[in-house]
Amino acid sequence: MDSKIVLLKEEFSAELMKAENTADLEAIRVKYLGKKGSVTDLLKEMRDLSPEEKKAFGQKVNELKAEVADKIAERTTELKELEIQKEIEAMPEFDISMPANIAEGSYHPVTLVQRQCEEIFRTMGFNVENYSEIVTDYECFEALNIPKHHPARDMQDTYYLTNGQLLKTHTSAAQNAIYKKYRDALINDNVPIKAIFPGRCFRNEATDACHENTFFQMEGVMVDKDISISNLIYFMKTMLSEVFRKDLKVRLRPGFFPFVEPGFELDISCLICGGEGCPSCKHSGWLELCPCGMIHPEVLKAGGIDPEEYSGFAFGLGLTRLVMMKYGIKDIRDLNSGSLKVLSQFTDDE
Amino acid sequence: MFLSMNWISDFVDFTGLDKLDLIRRFSLSTAEVENEIFFKGSDISGIVVAEIKSVEDHPESKKLHLLKVDAGDGVLTDVVCGAPNVRVGMKTAFAKIGAKIGEIEITPRALAGYTSYGMCCSEKEVGISDDNSGIMDILEDVANGTDIKNVYEIEDIVFEVDNKSLTNRPDLWGHYGIAREFAAIADRPLKPLDVVDLSAYDNLEKVDMKIEDELCQRYSCIKLEGITKNVSPVNMRIRLFYCGMRGINLLADLTNYLMLEMGQPMHAFDSRKVEKIRIKRFDEPFTFRTLDGVDRNIDTNTLMICNGDTPVAIAGIMGGLDSEIVEDTTTLTLESATFNAVSTRKSTVKLAHRTDASMRYEKCLDPEMTVPAIARFIKLLKDIDADAKVVSALTDERGFNYDKINLKFDKNFVDRYTGIEISNDTIVKTLTALGFGVELQDNNFSVDVPSWRATKDVTIKADIIEEITRIFGYDNFDINTTKSPLYPVRADIEKTTEDRIKDILVKSFSLHELHSYIWMGYDECKSLGIEIEENVGLTNATNPNIATLRKSLIPTQLCQLKTNTGFAPSFGIFEVGRAVDGLKEDGMCNEKKNLAVTLFSKTKTPAELYFELRDILTVLSGDIKHAALSFEAAAPTHNYEHPKNLNKIYCEGEEIGIIGMVHPTVLKKIDKKANVVFAEINVGAFSAVKANDIKYDEPSKFPGIEIDLSFVTDKFAPVGEAVKNADCSLIKDIQVVDTYEDENGKSITVRLFFVHPEKTLTRDEVMNVVNSIIDSLSKKGIELKK
User: Distance between alpha carbon B42 and the CA centroid of its chain, in Å?
Assistant: First the structure.
């Protein structure tokens, strides 16, 4: 009987060596350890043995059974590892330098810069207003202390419409409506007027690389009791430093605009040289950036606000100019060109 | 306008002060100075006065002369000179060996066989005029060898101020007004103008002059005789040249000099031609020849200076050719006047002829300046030509008077408006320096505005604040934030909606935002066959191509597609912009803020592209309003719309826009092989729709059942809509899993998901619902596929 065990062992070892994959191993397991397997058969032959022999033989068969099971398990682990290794080897290496294949959408660059500015002013408590592109002569001129025949009207070549309205020449055209919208809250509840209004403006002029008949500005106003020139300088310096993400120096010079008094031209320290003087600021150290000033008493009056009690400041940022400065766009006409080659580059910006 | 520091220094003593720093402060306190400052005379050195002692013809040149000159250094110098005006005894400007003229250094130089040890210079070479016709003829009695810069005011600092920054300051159109600003800035006194006393001539006869039109605010004149000199002093010519004018003759130079000094334009008539001065307009238009020889059309609104009824000058703009001073003029009438600014400006525009005089009159000149200008003119004239004689009394009339302006305010007003502390002393000193009359009592100011600031410039208290603060210096301000209370910022719903739309279109659907113009481009639309529909238009567009405003953003967007067809096989663009749909009842433009989206593809089928756009809009509505869209077939109203598949779009029952395909005629012109679909949403209407709240629905813990149903129809039928309308709370989701269309009709397979929140559904419960759907669709002609 013992010889049978030896034979079976040899036979098993030989077959185990031949197994190439886990499926072969499963077949071997069934052949030796299954209900009708060879090892199981050995136990069936024990019937004819004496009790002592049974005990000794049974022990040997059980040892064999354990040995076969162990060896199969051992070999299974080996083969599984081999298979994983093969799978790894079969995986090709990719060329990550291949161009990306994703179509990104894009914003108009004016949208990007406008949003940055709006966010800055919102954090400082300014409402962002929405205003029409077509306005009346009153809104664009009369309410801003620019009567008929005022030379300032010559400076802004206006597109007049067949119904007597006009395309707004500057975002200041929204001032009157803003004052009327918020004056009750100002007068009754002491809520200061703080608003910006970005918008598209139009000038009847020939276009070239520096001139467009359609462009964007952003107006800002603040009205309350005791708003002063000192406040104006503070807000302009703080806000422009945020816009350009630099601690800027600002400088005011007298400037004449009928809707402010005093009126200023505001210069910022040159963004390139910081004020030392360089070719981009024509060696002056300063860049003329935006007109601003204390709101003219007649303009406040036209908005229903008593200039004896309230004062305020206003400013006008050239949004289109900011866009060109920020992205280095040299030809203003690119912005309205509708060319996707130019404009699809502006995917998003912080 | 160019300004000379030498000229300004006639009126303010700058001893010990840095002139460049003063110019910088002028730029910050008064008006912008251009970056480039001219240091006149700095580019020449070593040029001295020399006397020509002998002149010989050059043996081999007709032009050249051989000179011996005495340059004051004890020897005679040999010079070869080509100037035609050389003569013995003449004193001229001589550049010695080692002298510099610009980049050139004078060295001994051989000219046609003779060596020249220096160069005689013309006025142009010295830089004091553009006269290069001969060498300088120095008439002054100065010793040979004297540096030319010590003879004439060649060295000067000249700066330029942009005329635009002076539009509101009539007083700054001459050096004297500019000097007043410098005096205030430098805190130095302003010297009075040196003038003659005109009352000395009161006994003489007056000029026959009468203002017959209120557009003439003031007219002052006087007659002069016996002027013998014709050439102006060199220093006067240098100043005129440095300030951008050419020397002509003594009288013309003097009127120009007065204009540049006081800002008062003046004109001299030949008294023989102007015996009876009348200032008026004419009832009929006529042609008038100005002194530049041009015939100009004069209309009935243009003010004229006349001799009786004969026009002799266009008031404030230019004199006439016939009344000009000529060689045999013995007596002249000097005019110094002010005219209505608006009228002068209009006439200038009509005549398309702007002069140095009209430019000044347009700014509202001070009428009080006319008489001092005459007094100053006579003073300068007599200093130059002692023979000149005044032969009439000053004749002066007014046609209009400005109100005297007095402004009252208190210290508290200044403090509030400036936000800083400026002392009463500083306020009084600043205003006084600028010519204001100031009275101060217990912190209350009473300020008289001087006539030269009272024509339009300074009229209210806020104007006074500007005077105080600009001289105080904005650089010297403490900067402080406001004390205003803080309130939450309210977002504008339309603006927020616009921002969210843009984000979704860019981020989720990779569309591109473009801007297009508010008007229709005629040429661009024509090339696509898009009709220019009647609408509000521009009355004065310089470019006739843009005379009509757009009713919709779609045409301008289709024009943009046309220029981008090579960008990619498939892409989409959008714009949030304004369109004008005619007029409202009140006559105002019906302006709308619209979103336009167009999709272009060379690879997708019309249906794929159409449903892609439908799905984009569905996401917009779902995301922003938590609402589904519904559609209703529409009839085309524009010639670029395809008659089929045009649908009005509704959100929560409100009509918000339209979706459609491009008409084949237009489409073929955009691209023969592409498909284009478009949608336009009224952002105002869409943002006004009340957004639904997000409704949370707890997922069922019980298993659901999926049923696929295939329907066939023999005609177009809204299957999707019909299934959706089968109202059953057990249906949790509906998906279209397959569609098929052939000549026999359309087949569609939908997958329905049934689930019950509280129990496991039985097959029978589900089949009841399914059967009711099949029945209801059957009634609409949609049959279950057998």
Answer: 35
> Chain-centre distance of CA B410, in angstroms?
37
Write the ipTM.
Answer: 0.87
Domain ranges of chain B: 2-40+157-186, 44-154, 198-398, 406-476, 493-688, 705-784
Tally of helices (H runs) and strands (E runs) in chain A: 12, 9
B493-688 placed in CATH 3.30.2130.10: no
pLDDT tens for residues B223-266? 999 999 989 999 999 999 999 998 899 999 999 999 999 999 99
CA nearest to A40, candidates A48, A25, A51, A30: A30
Listed by number, the residues of chain A in 220-249 with a beta carbon closer than 8 Å to a beta carbon of chain B are: 222, 224, 226-231, 233-235, 237-238
Contact B494 A262 (CB under 8 A): no
Q: Does A340 touch chain B (CB under 8 A)?
A: yes
Q: Which residue of B has its CA nearest to A107?
A: B513
Distance between CA atoms of residues B451 and B668, nearest Å:
71
Structural domain spans, chain A? 2-90, 109-343
Q: Point out which residues pair with B519 in neighbouring strands.
A: B549
pLDDT in tens, B178-232: 999 999 999 999 999 999 999 999 999 999 999 999 999 999 999 999 999 989 9
Fold of B44-154: OB fold (Dihydrolipoamide Acetyltransferase, E2P) (2.40.50)
3-state secondary structure of B208: strand
Q: Which fold has domain B705-784?
A: Alpha-Beta Plaits (3.30.70)
Q: Give contacts of A254 with chain B, Cβ < 8 Å.
A: 29-31, 466, 470
User: Parallel, antiparallel, or unpaired for β B647-651 and B629-633?
Assistant: antiparallel
Q: Is B374 helix (H, G, I), strand (E, B) or coil?
A: helix
- Look up the pTM and report it: 0.86
Amino acid code (one letter) for B515: H
The CATH number of the structural domain formed by B198-398 is 3.50.40.10
Tell which residue, B315, B322, B317, has the closest CA to residue B270: B322
CA distance A108 to A215: 13
- The architecture (CATH level 2) of A109-343 comes to 2-Layer Sandwich (3.30)
* Tokens at A152, concatenated: 């300032």
Partners of residue B278 on adjacent β-strands:
B210, B306
